[in-house]
């Protein structure tokens, strides 16, 4: 079945943006506040909509029209954003967010560029069979790695783990981070697999770059005790990841 494309005068049901206001390139982030901060980097910027967790901005970066959109926390809600952007004619989506390191050397303040994602979330399994891979666009991945290298930060490239759970439970073990560490997964986050699958289904480009704000395997009992994503070292990595994403978005 061919991907759905909406007419230019249509309004996206949940993003609430008009298709004609969207650029063909979009940077997506989880936090609406972060979307607003990214929008400050644009020229001729205007906020298109603010509905639920979905805040959408239009502007230009280095002379190229871009869209900025927030998608909230978790793959299911983010999938709505990704699908509606694709239906609205966006042909390149790059996600920039935070993630937890899995490998010992992937620590606070580093940047991770995702080559693909483990589909340990729920929404993609309702779109395609479990054997279907969640893979970023190779050319974008290479460009993101090169751009990230220019930030001067510690950069890692590899497969990330996308999961639905943020706070672990004492009842069920949940995600086995040590297993995925042995498999070579570099970081864990909550939305990339949905982006890569939806982009593949819609025939568009996708990529993802993350700022590392901690390492769950370094925490006691694999818990979130002491987690603090607002430290200066994390802020610097977030800025570096956003700059990387914007540079590649318009390249």
TrEMBL record:
CDD domains: UP_EcUdp-like (cd17767). It comes from the Bacteria. GO terms for cellular component: cytosol. Its EC number is 2.4.2.3. It catalyses: uridine + phosphate = alpha-D-ribose 1-phosphate + uracil. One of its GO terms (molecular function) is uridine phosphorylase activity. Residues 25-218 form the Nucleoside phosphorylase domain. Signal peptide: none annotated. It is an enzyme of class 2 (transferase). InterPro entries: Nucleoside_phosphorylase_d, Nucleoside_phosphorylase_sf. One of its GO terms (biological process) is uridine catabolic process. This is Uridine phosphorylase. The lineage of its organism: Bacteria, Bacillati, Actinomycetota, Actinomycetes, Micrococcales.
């Amino acid at each position: 079945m061919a991907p759905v494309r909406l007419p230019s005068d249509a309004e996206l049901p949940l993003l609430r943006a008009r298709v004609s206001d969207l650029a063909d390139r979009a940077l997506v982030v989880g936090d609406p506040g972060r979307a607003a901060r990214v929008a400050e980097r644009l020229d001729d910027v205007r906020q298109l909509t603010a509905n639920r967790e979905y805040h959408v901005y239009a502007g230009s970066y280095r002379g190229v029209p871009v869209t900025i959109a927030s998608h909230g926390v978790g793959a299911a809600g983010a999938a709505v954003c990704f699908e509606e952007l694709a239906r609205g004619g966006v042909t390149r989506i790059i996600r920039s967010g935070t993630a937890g390191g899995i490998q010992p050397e992937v620590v606070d303040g580093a940047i991770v560029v995702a080559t693909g994602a483990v589909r340990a979330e729920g929404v993609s399994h309702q779109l395609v069979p479990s054997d279907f891979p969640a893979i970023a666009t190779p050319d974008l991945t290479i460009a993101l790695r090169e751009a990230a290298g220019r930030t001067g930060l510690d950069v890692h490239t590899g497969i990330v783990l996308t999961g639905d759970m943020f706070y672990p439970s004492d009842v069920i073990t949940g995600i086995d981070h040590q297993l995925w560490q042995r498999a070579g997964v570099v970081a864990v986050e909550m939305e990339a697999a949905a982006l890569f699958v939806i982009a593949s289904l819609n025939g568009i480009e996708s990529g993802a770059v993350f700022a590392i704000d901690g390492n769950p395997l370094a925490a006691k009992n694999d818990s979130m005790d002491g987690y603090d994503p607002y430290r200066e070292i994390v802020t610097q990595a977030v800025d570096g990841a956003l700059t990387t994403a914007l540079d590649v978005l318009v390249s």
